[in-house]
Design goal:
37% helix, 4-stranded antiparallel beta sheet
Length: 90
């Protein structure tokens, strides 16, 4: 299993979750866990996904999600789980 952490941050607007989740579903990426909040108009979402069956190489998926983020006015960041874990160790 290849786990990836995806974070989405930006001004809240209609369709953020739909755009990101549709892209992931279209490319066989399974969402294992998802959390989202909206604080004073700011949208924040964190997902743990399994990319092991994805038809996209990781780098291409990162670029395409970045492009989607630009189109909808949010910042989308993807990191392999092991890198995310090492970066956030206390």
């Amino acid at each position: 299993m290849k786990k990836t952490i995806i974070t989405v941050v930006g001004r809240d607007t209609v369709g953020i979750i739909a755009k990101v989740c549709t892209y992931l579903a279209d490319h066989q990426v399974n969402i294992e866990d998802i959390s989202q909040t909206i604080l004073q108009g700011w949208f924040n979402m964190m997902m743990i996904v399994d990319t092991s069956k994805s038809d996209k190489p990781f780098g291409e998926m990162v670029e395409e999600l970045n492009q989607i983020g630009e189109e909808i006015g949010v910042k989308i960041r993807c990191q392999h789980e092991d890198i995310f874990t090492k970066m956030h160790r206390i």
